[in-house]
Design a protein that fits this description.
The strands form five sheets. Strands 7, 8, 9, 10, 11 and 12 form a six-stranded antiparallel sheet that branches. The longest helix is centred in the middle third of the chain and has 20 residues. It is elongated, with a radius of gyration of 25 Å. The chain has 376 residues and is α+β, with helices and mostly antiparallel strands. Helix 2 runs antiparallel to helix 3 and helix 5 crosses helix 6. The protein binds guanosine-5'-diphosphate and manganese (II) ion (MN).
Length: 376
């Protein structure tokens, strides 16, 4: 789950990471009031969950409260990569002398958090990683003992020459790691971490992604979920307890098990199709889940055929078949649905399915080809 910059900033501030003063405005007159209270130049920053707001025109400098109001008028309701801006952060502007990058993610290969820093900050860090990977420095953290002070210092020396700034940098890294740990983040990022006249180091951007699997114990954070910024289909899927990711293709996929779902998508691509989604109905095969899955997929106008691939284990084919029949009754799909049903209670399942008219196909490969062919 992603949170907005202002929320991520609050998490940083709660852990002692220095950030500029800022407040949220939902109207341009609020923006004016906040900027007037600060009584100095401010940044007007669109709060959207997508990156690269600056380049998209969503981060602007305002000399005074009047300018902040004009800019807020422009930025509120602006569309940034498909997301509408509802809030702007009015943040005290700082003079920037240098910009660096600091990020922490979970490295799956080593099963450890990895801290990455680069003095080439501010810009697109993916590009730095791609073209000049030698400019990125890393430290892997043993999760049992946490980030060690010497590791934080090693990294801080890569960013700063001034010893005072090295100390501040190391301190910020320790606090950032604590934030990462405490909020169950899958990613925390400061881009840029800046130095200002007088020598202070501070975070002027903040990004935090929370591990969805930890939300059950991060109730306060879960309550921050911004439904307005999420795909309606993904909200529905979460409510139905389905793992679902919307994609841009035309072949809707309903599969049991994450691995089989990935394999199914691979096959769709191999035979020249594009999956419309990832969807795992999970282990237990409540027929209602199949109905919910069909409903979600049918609401996507790009979908031109649906591919159902079930390998019955704990999931029983007859339950899934009942779900499919029920979905046909309730939703009356006007696009072709191709089904592969094999494993536990396969015979019973196929009997149930006989009551709906489905294109026939046998092996997994053929079922996938059929779904693509029928999508046209
Ligand atoms: P992003 O585009 O979503 O990453 O948003 P950022 O918060 O990182 O802002 C984009 C860019 O705007 C930064 O890299 C800075 O160059 C610039 N910027 C943001 N805040 C300030 C500020 O307080 N002062 C100055 N001079 N520039 C800023
Ligand atoms: Mn940034």
């Amino acid at each position: 789950m992603k949170v907005h910059e202002y929320q991520a900033r609050q998490m940083f501030a709660d852990h002692g990471v220095p950030v500029p003063n800022g407040e949220i405005a939902t109207t341009s007159s609020e923006a004016y009031e906040i900027a007037e209270r600060f009584n100095k130049p401010v940044m007007v920053k669109a709060q959207v969950l997508v990156g690269g707001r600056g380049k998209a025109g969503g981060v602007k400098y305002a000399e005074n409260a009047e300018a902040a109001q004009v800019l807020a008028t422009k930025i509120i309701d602006m569309d940034i990569k498909g997301e509408t801006v509802h809030k702007v952060l009015i943040s005290e502007a700082v003079d920037i002398l240098s910009e660096s990058y600091v990020g922490i993610i979970l490295d799956r290969a080593t099963q450890k958090p990895v801290i990455m820093v680069s003095s080439a900050g501010g810009v697109d860090i993916e590009e730095v990683a791609d073209k000049t990977p030698e400019k990125i420095f890393k430290e892997y953290v043993d999760p049992v003992v946490g980030l060690q002070a010497y590791q934080a210092r090693n990294l801080a020396y890569k960013l700063f020459k001034d010893i005072g700034q090295v100390r501040q940098g190391a301190d910020i890294l320790m606090k950032l790691y604590q934030t990462f740990w405490d909020v169950d983040a899958s990613l925390v990022e400061i881009n840029p971490l800046v130095t200002v006249p007088g020598g202070k180091v501070l975070a002027i951007d903040a990004k935090v992604n929370i591990d969805d699997n930890a939300l059950y114990r991060q109730k306060e954070i879960e309550a921050m979920r911004d439904l307005a910024a999420e795909e309606p289909a993904e909200i529905k899927a979460r409510e139905a307890d389905l793992s679902f990711v919307k994609l841009d293709g035309s072949i809707g996929c309903i599969v049991n098990g994450a691995g089989l779902a990935m394999t199914t998508m691979d096959l769709v691509k191999r035979y020249g199709g594009e999956p419309a989604n990832f969807l795992d109905i999970g282990g237990s095969s409540n027929p209602q889940k199949v109905v919910a899955a069909m409903d979600i997929i049918l609401s996507d106008p790009n979908v031109r055929s649906i591919l159902i691939n079930i390998f019955g284990g704990i999931t029983r084919c007859d339950d899934v078949a009942s779900g499919i029949v029920e979905a046909f009754k309730q939703l009356k799909p006007s696009i072709p649905v191709v089904v592969r049903l094999t494993g536990t209670n396969e015979k019973e399942g196929k009997k149930i399915l006989a009551s709906v008219k489905l294109p026939s196909a046998d092996t997994l490969d053929n079922v996938v080809k059929k779904a693509i062919e029928l999508a046209g």
